[in-house]
# Entry
Amino acid sequence: MAASVLPSAYQLSAASPDWLNKGDNAWQMISATLVGLQSVPGLVILYGSIVKKKWAVNSAFMALYAFSAVVICWVTWGYKMSFGEKLLPFWGKAGPALGQKFLIKQAALPASAHYYKNGTLETAMITPFYPMASMVWFQCVFAAIAVILLAGSLLGRMNIKAWMAFVPLWLTFSYTVGAFSLWGGGFLFHWGVMDYSGGYVIHLSSGVAGFTAAYWVGPRLMVDRERFPPNNVLMTLAGAGLLWMGWAGFNGGDPYTANIDSSMAVLNTNICAATSLLVWTWLDVIFFGKPSVIGAVQGMITGLVCITPGAGLVQGWAAIIMGVLSGSIPWFTMMVIHKKWTLLQKVDDTLGVVHTHAVAGYLGGILTGIFAEPELCSLFLAVTNSRGGVYGGSGGVQVLKQLAGGAFIIGWNIVATSIICVVIGRVIPLRMSDEQLMIGDDAVHGEEAYALWGDGEKYDGTKHGLYSDDTGHGGRQASGATQML
# Structure
């Protein structure tokens, strides 16, 4: 290499300043990538395979579109609304986060940190030692997966154009409120409500918002509601596996540093998920006579969701208890209460997101208020002397705070999501036409997941690809690779 192209000492020091912790920055970028992989391809694969064959493309595309749209909205205005200067006690001021490449001066709290009367700091500032760009991207993938999880309630009938409008509106008027209130220095953070990694901000909000949106969009066709088999169970497991393994970044990255707390969070996450999956599976065996693969996936998800608000705040034994409850209570609400409660039957929540995310997320938040260990709480920079109910002192009050914090997230999402759906519905039909609902992907996208010759599928090569359907019978010449196959 020529000497003229070697980086100078100044350039090296500027790229790696003294304050930069390379280990923390590397872990944060890895965590963000893991969370991103949960959505793309994780949930893209899971959604595309767990639905009926005719909705595979549409379901996968809803996730793919949402991820892309959130990235642009997040860096343009969403990040600052969630982690910027305070506009209201529950909302930050909008603004761009483009070109944010230097040290984070205030990651979780703006200039509104609470002080005791004697001037000592009650709630410390969080100052990770890595570039702002790492934080912006890390929080971006969280925002994206929240919207994608919400989509699980709407699969198989929401107008794709309405969905394209819904994504930026819900991110702006719903997600950013929960994020700022609990993570960005808002009133719930200062009050001491614990949400380690998004049990409330992501799962409770997406579960409630998904159920609310499903009410406004309306149900699938009756033929789809009565029979909606997965088109590929093995691919569903592949998507679920990406979701599970990606949760190491989901929960392990939230201390904003590679420390003891992050290790505890990753271990507890896997303990709770495994316990929950086993409990759900055994309940299926006991009451239905056989284990369900889809049921096991649901149990895995409820365990991952339940541990999220307390992943780095509880001990391993508590994670097992949380797994037992997350594998049984959401199972009961889905398998028993849902079948007896008229409201739940009326609203067509396609993948039961209200059970797997809203119920499991709220349950996890409450259990965090019970089991949060004082020393781990101090590592998380919660309000001084925070502790779970089993540790005495002010622990009983913590449970009430968790209940109240969850109630705010539920109320806000019901109202905000309803307003968004009503507004969109006046411009774009929320639900597809009955003709589109009968046909599925081919009517909506002009594409199908499994375009098998002779199976009735049609693919318009003039619009979507290089070749026509009859490549071997007078169509355009296929490539050499295709001819070899």
Q: What stands out?
A: The chain has one domain: 19-435. The first strand starts at residue 86 and ends at 88. Residues 19-435 form a domain with the Ammonium transporter fold fold (CATH 1.10.3430.10).
